[in-house]
Amino acid sequence: MSLPLLAKLRQIVGETHVLKEGDLSHWELDWRRRERGKALAVVRPANTAEVAAVVKACAMAEVSIVPQGGNTGMVVGSTPDASGTQIVLSLQRMQVLRQLDAANMTITLDAGCILQNVQLACQQAGFLFPLRMASEGSCTIGGNLATNAGGTQVLRYGNTRELCLGLEVVTPQGDIWDGLTGLRKDNTGYDLRHLLIGSEGTLGIITAAVMRLYPLPTVQLTAMAAVPSLKAAVALLGLAHQHLTAGLTGFEVMNQFALSLVVKHFAQVHVPFTASPYCVVLENSDHESDAHAISRFESLMQTAINQGLVNDAVIAQNITQARSLWHVRESIPLAQAVEGLNIKHDISIAVSRIPDFVHHTQALLEKHHPGVRLVNYGHLGDGNLHFNVQAPEHENAADFLTEREADINTLVYDAVAQFNGSISAEHGIGSLKRGKLAHYKPATALSMMHAIKHALDPLGTMNPRRVL
Ligand code: FAD
Ligand code: 2HG
Ligand code: ZN
Hints:
The protein is α+β, with helices and mostly antiparallel strands. It is built from 17 helices and 19 strands. The protein folds into four domains: 2-90, Uridine Diphospho-n-acetylenolpyruvylglucosamine Reductase, domain 2 (2-Layer Sandwich), CATH 3.30.43.10; 97-215, Uridine Diphospho-n-acetylenolpyruvylglucosamine Reductase, domain 3 (2-Layer Sandwich), CATH 3.30.465.10; 219-333, Alpha-Beta Plaits; 340-427, Alpha-Beta Plaits (2-Layer Sandwich), CATH 3.30.70. Helix 1 (2-13) packs antiparallel against helix 3 (48-61). The chain starts with a helix and ends in a 12-residue tail after the last helix.
């Protein structure tokens, strides 16, 4: 059965873009090295028409497809399973910036465009594309949309969903839906765009999108502050909202252990505070004069120091210093990966409840799993923590995962549920959290999700056993 299909796929995308032999780990191994799959083939179409033809051929043969962008996802959603029967459909050749509409303040682009390239192209045209995250050199707009990615500017600009004004999608049957309208208002029935965003490749393949642009800020101020506690960090966030209002674009928190991993593994990265229990990085972007913005920012920091919310702080004096403060924060996921396999919890809790949640859950972890090392950091401004657990020092990380991951996940997610939070804030479900979704999502919501999946993908060939 598979030979005629592969021959057909070669006809559609060209011989060299159906990869079958050699080392395919780039496409078969997930970023966190949690699972290595085996693809029937990796297929790399060049445009939407080719994607549609590939999907049609696979649907005829009832062969499953795993859509893939930059393969930087955190929940094992973009790599094939081990059966050797799934096609990885990589969007990496689809990188055309189709049209920048200055008057509409939108950009229409192929789903395979790398996020960083999009940011740069928009900047050169005098606009801000505000999606920002440490994986931006590899992740794609299609992947960002399929996971509804967050990142470090959600506080001001929202998740990827909020940035999207239209999609082009290839359905599981291989039909093309052109929804690239770029409209800000369109109440014509069910909003299919929002159904596809965050669907993690289970409802269709996003081939292009229209994304919102913003004016480039004229001032950008960044600071790192050492705070005595998480409670102080939350109070500082409130103060920052009051002082900076809509100018507050980023507010990230990181615990001492997270920063110690950056120091340990990346000697070239300068970490200003290494002994503080928590640090925050905050950013103010604005369109006012430098002098006005600087005085407001400094007054915020001074008030915070006076109130005992900040012990010490550095304010970047130029863009290079600002980049280097952000670099400290953005180095944490890589430092954690170098330290070894770990358990990630990408959770959402109401900002006001975060200190109590951490106090409660950290105590439980210490009681039931003494010695585990908590890498607690994330997007505090959005109430999104990366409440990650690293094996005790000198314990084999793979054994640690085998023996304790299930228990630790239950402990953390039960606490998240108790605090009325979410088990996935921005990374999605993939295969790693599929069982947890089934457990924690309300039954009625789950049954609506199953009905949607069945209606749009009755053969179940679109990224099977992901999400649901
Ligand atoms: P992939 O990993 O290739 O795919 C992710 C999912 O989307 C899979 O289910 C896949 O099947 C599906 N998919 C991909 N492309 C398409 C498409 N065109 N159509 C339909 N489905 C598709 N995430 C955040 O939210 N915030 C962060 O701050 C953040 N920081 C990160 C930092 C690092 C160092 C790393 C490694 C990852 C980080 N991530 C973050 C996670 C990841 O980068 C994002 O989820 C990103 O959006 C994934 O994009 P991708 O192109 O790599 O998608
Ligand atoms: C980040 O915010 C990413 O750096 C990665 O979402 C989170 O490594 C993680 O757990
Ligand atoms: Zn994150």
